[in-house]
Structures are given as C-alpha cells and as structure tokens.
Amino acid sequence: MEKKFKRTLITTALPYANGPVHIGHLAGVYVPADIYARYLRLRGEDVVMVGGSDEHGVPITLRARKEGITPQEVVDRYHTIIKDSLEELGVSFDIYSRTTSKLHHETASEFFRHLYDKGEFTVQTALQPYDEKTGEFLADRYVVGTCPRCHNENAYGDQCEACGSSLNVTDLINPRSALTGEPVKMRDTTHWYLPLNKWEGKLREWILEGHKEWKTNVYGQCKSWLDAGLQPRAVSRDLKWGVPVPVEGAEGKVLYVWFDAPIGYISNTKELLPDSWEKYWKDPESRIINFIGKDNIVFHCIVFPSMLMAYGDNFQLPDNVPANEFLNLEGDKISTSRNWAVWLHEYLRDFPGKQDVLRYVLTANAPETKDNDFTWADFQARNNNELVAILGNFVNRAVVLTHKYFGGVVPVRGEMSDTDNEVFAELNRIKGALSEALDTFHFREALKQAMEIARLGNRYLQETEPWKLAKSDMTRTGTILNVALQLCANLAIAFEPFIPFSTGRLAKMLNIGKLSWDMLGQTELVAEGSEIAPAELLFDKIEDAEVQNQVQKLLDTKKANEIAAWKAQPQAETVEFDTFAACDLRVGTVVECEKVPKADKLLRFLIDDGLEKRTIVSGIAKFYKPEDLVGKQVCFIANLAPRKLKGIVSEGMILSAENSDGSIVLLSPSATVAPGAKIG
Ligand SMILES: Nc1ncnc2c1ncn2[C@@H]1O[C@H](COP(=O)(O)OP(=O)(O)OP(=O)(O)O)[C@@H](O)[C@H]1O
Ligand SMILES: [Zn+2]
C-alpha cells in the first residue's frame, strides 16, 4: 500500500559554481525536479523545492588561481549566472541559495561538531600528497597523473574524465602537483573519517529491503556499493577554501565538499522556513525526494544517509532518489572544461522566448533509463513536428474556428454524439496514465501522454470537419468546437508541469482562471457564452539556419579543442650530417602557378631556380589561390628524383609545414634572395 505523506521536500543537486549550467544538468536534475514540483503544487500539496550553488571544493580554487582572482569572485560570478538562468527557464525554486552563506557555514559546522561530540568519527593519520614548492597538501584535483586504466595523462586525483573511473590519488601513475607540475611527495596528515561500515546494515535494510520500487539504475548502484562493503570515508581536507573544521587542532583543514554540500539542502530549507524547516526534515509524515544525476548516487544513498543516521534527532532519509543517467551532446560526453555543452544562459540569449522548447525537448529525450544524446536536428524536429504541428496546430485550429464561426464566444454544447463521448472517455484514460507516470517519475512517458490529448484533438477535428459542417449545421459545429475548446483547456493543465510559459498563454487565450490537477478530465472548463481571446501561435517553426548556427558553434569548439590538444610529433631518429648535406635544398621564385585539372589537391608550379625554369607539382591547392603565389619565393628540394603526378613530371618538392589544424603553410625566406640560393 502506498504511504500517504503530508508534505514533500524536493531537493536538487547543487550545481558546482565553477561554470554555468548546461543542458546535461537540466535534463538530469532541474527540469525533472521542476516538473514534479509543479505537478504536486497543481495537486494542491504542501511542497517545497530547494536548491543552491555548491561553492566549495578544489575545482573552484584551481580556477581562481588560474584566472588570478579569489575563489569568492569565481563563485559570485557563476552563482549569479546559474541562479538567473534557471529562473528564466522557469525552474520554480522556493529558494535558490549558496553554500558560502553564513547560515550554511553555521549549519554545516554545527553538523560536524555534533557528530564529533557524539564520537561518530574516527581519526586517521595517513600519507597524503604534498607539494614541497608551495608547502601545501594536495587534495583531490590538486593532483594530476596518468590514469592506470586508460593511460590518459591528465587524470585527476579523484577521477579520470577520459574513462570515467573514480580514482584515489595513490592509483595515479607519476602523480604531480596541479599547482607546480612537481612530482608529489607523500607526508603524514590527520583527518576525520565517517565509518560508513557502521551503517551498512541499516542502509541495506532501508534500500535493499525497503525501497525495491526505486529506479533500477539507482537500486543497482546502491546494491553493488553495499555488496562490495563500505569503508570509513574522510570528511575533511587540507584546504583553505571551505567550511573550517570546527575542532581544535584542525587549522588549515576544511570539511570535504561532499560532506558540506548535502547539508546545503538542510540550510536552504532553514533559510526559507526559519520556523518550520524541521517538519520537512524530521516528521516521518514528510517525504524527501532527491533529484540528481547518476554520478551523485553514492553520496545521496550511502554517504549523506549515513551522516543523517549518525546525527540522529529524527532526521528522515529520502523516500526516493530518482537519479537520471547522463545526457550527451551530439555524440560526445558533455564537459565544462572542454566547453562541450549547450549553456543555458547562451540558449536563452540565442532563442529568446523559447524556454518551453528546451524544457520539452529535454523531457521528451530525458536520460531516464540510459544515457541519451541531444542533437540540434532532434531539437528542431521535435519543435517543428510536435510542438508546432501537433500541439500548436490543434489549439490554433480550435481557437481560430471559434472566432470565425462564433465571433470568439464559446458556443453551446448541444447533443453529444458517440464520437464526442469517446473523446471525453479517452481524455479520462489519458488523465489516469499521465498521473500514474508523474507519480512514478516517468516524465518522458507523462509528456507523451499529455501530447496524446493534442493528438486526440487533431483526430477529432479531422473526423468531424467542423469547417465543412459550418455551411449546413451551426448547432453541430458549435458542439464540436465546444468539445475542442474543452480539450484545449485540458491541455493547459496537462502540460503545465512541462511547458508552463505556453500553458500560461493558453489559459489566457481561453480566458480561464486558476487551474488545478483535479480539473484535468473535466469537460466544462471553458464556459458556454464566455469570450476567448484572439488566436496567438503558441510555437513557431525553427528554421534550418538557426540550428545550423548552433551546430557551427559546436564544430568551432571541436576545432579549438583539437588545436589545444595538439602535440608536436616526437623527434625522428638522429641522422649523420652527410645524410642532410646530400639533400640539395634551394630557394626559387614562382614564375607560374595553376591548378592541375581534375585534381582538387594539386598545384603546378613553374619555378625559376637560377639555372632554368623547372616544374614542381605540390598538394596544397586547398590552402592557396594559385594567382596569389606568382612572384613569391619558396623553398624546395632540388635533387629529388623526378616523379609523375597526374601526367606531369614533378622535378623536386616544395617545402611546407603542416599546422595543428591540418592546414598547410609554405616556407619562404624572410627576405628576398637570389633564385637558386642554397639552404643549409
Ligand atoms: N550530462 C549530464 N547529464 C545528466 N546529469 C548531469 C550531467 N552533468 C551533470 N549532471 C548532474 O547535474 C548535477 C549538478 O552537477 P555538477 O555541478 O556537480 O556538475 P558536474 O557533474 O561537475 O558537471 P560538469 O563536469 O559538466 O561541470 C549533478 O547531479 C550531476 O549528476
Ligand atoms: Zn582513465
């Protein structure tokens, strides 16, 4: 039997404030959380959605060092971008705060101190990497080295981004300091550990016995962690940026970012509801739902619950953790550091007023059960073929026809035909399926069901053809349009959790007041005799040029990444001087230059080499216009055995350099020299 709850607290993973948010964050966490929150609010439930930026941890301090600014400046910049862009997308947080707030520092500090006083920690001294040049211990990402699994040379001390392995500093081959590049030294340092093993039994019972309904990806990950056996986990770090460890002898140490971040959920609730926050956290009749992406499962299902159990005081464990898998972009893993992303703030700038299109596409294609790919082609297709052609089209037809035949006044619904009754029966079936999908976090399925109402409407108009009937039977035409308008009003409810901007406009067009989930399925939402507003298009077609711009932006990024990753080839084997001297290298002046017919890569040169004019064929046609080269001086190998290319005998080879992007650049002397001058 499903348990009834009095209220729900929705938490959303705290985005890391070392960059803006991208579509992966949205698809994984913020869009589904917002859908669920809006749905519960429509049902009139007591629901609170909290969020905030995660502003501590090593990547932020590294970024600050790189840019020569303070960590506070880094987080101020990104917190503002993240907060504003999520708000503009319509993510309806009740509070969006940050972990550098005073209240959070106090809350996290008190949490640690309480566990410390209760004796919930163990203290361990262990060897940690240390940079002798800067005199600092190197936590997590301060250490880079070669990944033992995939041999990526730039794996971090906690993770390899190339192969996705989670690592320990000691796993890295040739570990070096990210600050100075020096090999790391190991030194003793003391930290506080939370013995997760102490909570293993309770965790097993709570998840493996008590929550078999969880998503299989979440349940499966928890099971494998638990089956592998839990170890004590360090909850402090040698760092200056963060919440200081509030005990004596802990100077220069802060709370591990994954100890402090989930406490952010508590401090955010506290900040929002100073007097009543506890009932959301401690009343067994409250329900906590954590929205996260798959890489956060262990922290939300193992680490944070252990912290809450260790704290005691009735803190409740989450009722569900509907974690999503990952969204990729055009076939590649989304990455902040490689700038491989669609950034929300840029999307909002490039597609003004199209928040709902992104919300729709990210839900329709959400990585609910497996990793999924976002492509601009799919984005365009879903907008044009679904939002415009199905939903927008149906609403537009119903509203336009009501204006055309009834002057915008909702016509009377006369006698109902079997078709009309079937439409309403189908609407009811959809309501059931839609609610069930939302209740069980199947948002893709829920969105599909909502779209079924619009499909139903289009089929209905197609079958009944009111535009034909209007010539002979206005009563029947009125009935049909009344039914169609009721479906439109139902769409305004069914789609509200997903695309709230458009449903707001739709409700206004239909001139209907506040809607609630209970009203879904009702057939008298638009009152007979009431006036509706003129038709307004809910969605516009997205043209090829708009998505091509976005694809080009990604291609540019790819190119920039390749150039940044380019490395010179290792040096070839040593040769004796005589070998070099045997090559007769000279400078010549280009007398003629033209494209070789039927060969798109080749140019034919006629070179004045100081003795005579010689012909050389060179494969650089993609990079130079022949007319631009006439009169220029080039370097060439004079004594290379002649070779036939496309029927032309080439007497030598022109020297060029291949750039990191694959383009070819000719070599020329830095000042004009006599043709035939020797190079050596
Ligand atoms: N591509 C993605 N698909 C789905 N969820 C994601 C994706 N990237 C991040 N998330 C989720 O978004 C939440 C906030 O992410 P966080 O700020 O920690 O970013 P991150 O994982 O460091 O991403 P990035 O490396 O791209 O900055 C986390 O719960 C994370 O699992
Ligand atoms: Zn690796």
Automatic annotation (TrEMBL):
It is an enzyme of class 6 (ligase). Binds 1 zinc ion per subunit. It catalyses: tRNA(Met) + L-methionine + ATP = L-methionyl-tRNA(Met) + AMP + diphosphate. It comes from Duncaniella dubosii. Belongs to the class-I aminoacyl-tRNA synthetase family. MetG type 1 subfamily. Keywords: Aminoacyl-tRNA synthetase, ATP-binding, Cytoplasm, Ligase, Metal-binding, Nucleotide-binding, Protein biosynthesis, RNA-binding, tRNA-binding, Zinc. Its main location: cytoplasm. Its cofactor is Zn(2+). Is required not only for elongation of protein synthesis but also for the initiation of all mRNA translation through initiator tRNA(fMet) aminoacylation. The gene is metG. Its EC number is 6.1.1.10. InterPro entries: aa-tRNA-synth_I_CS, Anticodon_Met, Met-tRNA-synth_bsu_C, Met-tRNA_ligase_1, Met-tRNA_synth, Methionyl/Leucyl_tRNA_Synth, MetRS_core, MetRS_Zn. This is Methionine--tRNA ligase. It is found in: Cytoplasm. GO terms for molecular function: ATP binding; metal ion binding; methionine-tRNA ligase activity; tRNA binding. Pfam families: Anticodon_3 (PF19303), tRNA-synt_1g (PF09334), tRNA_bind (PF01588). GO terms for biological process: methionyl-tRNA aminoacylation. ATP binds at residue 336. Homodimer. A motif ('HIGH' region) lies at residues 15-25. Zn(2+) binds at residues 147, 150, 160, 163.
